[in-house]
Amino acid sequence: MGMEDKGKPEEASKLFLQAWDEATNNSEKFLAAFYISRHQKNTSDRLKWLTTALQLALELNDHSVESAFPSLYSSIAKCYEDLNDPHEANKNYKLAASFKNKPTDTGPFYHGTKADLKVGDLLTTKNDSNYKSDLKMNHIYFTALVNGAGLAAALAKGEGRERVYVVEPTGDFEDDPNVTNKKFPGNQTRSYRSESPLKIVGEVVDWERLIPEELQKFRDRLANTKENIIN
């Protein structure tokens, strides 16, 4: 991916093929196949790798990849269009639309912050962002990965101790668009957001904490990012 960023697609393609050859599980194979497909100049070859990535994702049956299905099916449909096969194209476009539903992830879910809260409290919108004090939240963000919530707590503003709360959504929620199908296919961080409150139902006291040097790298990226990171 670094070679892609440097404008060296041939080197990137070779490394993705190497990743495919050395993959040890379906998750690694899925990612490799997805990236290999992007470097195919021939439509038939692109279709082959996209189909491979899709089959691996279906076999994984993992919440982190389910959000990639609409994009995968749409890309496969476009390949069939280019190959003058409207029947397969329409079938895959319909499949893409069928997967554009609400996430099926059932958690448990976590929210990281430095705020001192208690069981029964509600996290609601229209409060200050944990990262940008001049920004009001339109959504509440949470994740199904406890270490991800721990990182969010470490990066949050404030002087309090890092807290990771177990939360329950009280309404509908959706994939976090800031990370879903961006650099990685699907929602690899299992990050979500909701306009409805989150209810605190517990607290986690043990998660994997980054060493100071690693944490500083994340802080530097947060300070230099052009994206709106809100929580």
How many domains make up the 3D coordinates?
2
From the alpha-carbon coordinates, what is the Rg to the nearest angstrom?
Answer: 20 Å
Quantity of strands, as a count = 7
Shape: globular
Helix share bin:
40-55%
Number of helices: 9
Major β-sheet annotation: 4 strands, antiparallel
Q: How far is the first residue's CA from the last residue's CA? A: 27 Å
Q: Name the CATH superfamily assignment of the largest domain.
A: Rifampin ADP-ribosyltransferase domain
Question: What is the topology, as strand order, of the major beta sheet?
Answer: 1-4-7-2
Work out the strand percent.
5-15%
Content-based structural category: alpha+beta
pLDDT < 50 runs, ≥5 residues: 226-230
Task: Please write the CATH class name of the largest domain.
Answer: Alpha Beta
Order of helices and strands: HHHHHHHEEEHEEEEH
The averaged pLDDT comes out at 89
Corresponding CATH architecture of the largest domain = Alpha-Beta Barrel
Structural notes for this entry:
The structure is a single chain. The protein has helices at 2-5, 9-22, 26-38, 43-60, 63-66, 69-82, 86-98, 146-155, 212-224, and strands at residues 109-113, 122-123, 140-143, 163-169, 174-175, 191-194, 198-204. The protein is globular. It has 2 domains: 2-98, Alpha Horseshoe (Serine Threonine Protein Phosphatase 5, Tetratricopeptide repeat), CATH 1.25.40; 109-224, Rifampin ADP-ribosyltransferase domain (ADP-ribosylation fold, Alpha-Beta Barrel). Helices cover 45% and strands 13% of the residues. It is built from 9 helices and 7 strands. α2 (9-22) packs antiparallel against α3 (26-38). The chain has 231 residues and is of the alpha+beta class. The protein has a 4-stranded antiparallel sheet. It has a 3-stranded antiparallel sheet with strand order 3-6-5.
